[in-house]
Every structure is written in C-alpha cells, then in structure tokens.
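no rush on this but wanted to send it before i forget. what follows is a protein written twice so to speak, once as letters and once as structure tokens for the fold. mainly i need to know what kind of three dimensional shape the backbone takes. thanks a lot i owe you, the record is right below.
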Amino acid sequence: MPNTNKRTHFDKPYYQRYYLNSQTRSVSESDVQGIVDFVLAYARRLDITLRTAIDFGCGVGYWQTCLRRRLKKTQYMGIEESAFAVRKYGWTRGSVTNFASGATHDLVICQSVLQYLNA
C-alpha cells in the first residue's frame, strides 16, 4: 500500500522487524538472490557487462551480497535514506528522489522503494 501521508521512520526497530527477524521480515537474502540471478541472466542475454551498480534504498545490502557472489569485480554503491542503516552498514546517505552520483552505472537498482514515495 502506498505511503502517501505519513513518513516512515527507517530506524533500528524498522530494520529489526522487516529485515532481521525471520518471523516478521518482508524479504530475505534468498528472495533477492532469485531476482539477482534473473537480472544477471538478462544482462548476459543483452550482452551487457555490469561493472558498476547503484542501489537506491539498499537496506541491509542483500543486492550487494548477492551480486558479489556472482560478479566479484563489480563496484557497488548503496544509497540509503535511513541514518541508522548508513551508520550500521556504511552506505551513502541519500534518496532516489534527490541523489546525483555524478557517474553513470551499468545497473541501477530500486527494489521496494517506490511505495514509500509521496504521489
């Protein structure tokens, strides 16, 4: 359901509930691995070499972990709005709505982010 009025606080309890607790998490690393496998197969089919990836709303970094298993040399940049996640995981603070990296990227990831944006 879109979040149109109330701002979600991506704090430690949010991460505990939606990422770290196996009983309440909304996504797991194995879920993301399946998506990554599909994206990499599609990129191979299109003959695209993925040297760089930028991940908006990277959360705990499942995309980074899964990409590194398959593409060890791909440079990954995690962008996260959550001050908690930036501190804990070392991401770059920013949002898909206002971040400008100043570089091009072979893969732009924006998974499970759009529902948190205002209309």
Notes: DSSP finds four helices and four strands in the chain. The first helix runs from residue 12 to 20. The helical segments are 12-20, 29-45, 62-70, 83-89. Strands lie at 52-56, 75-80, 92-93, 107-109.
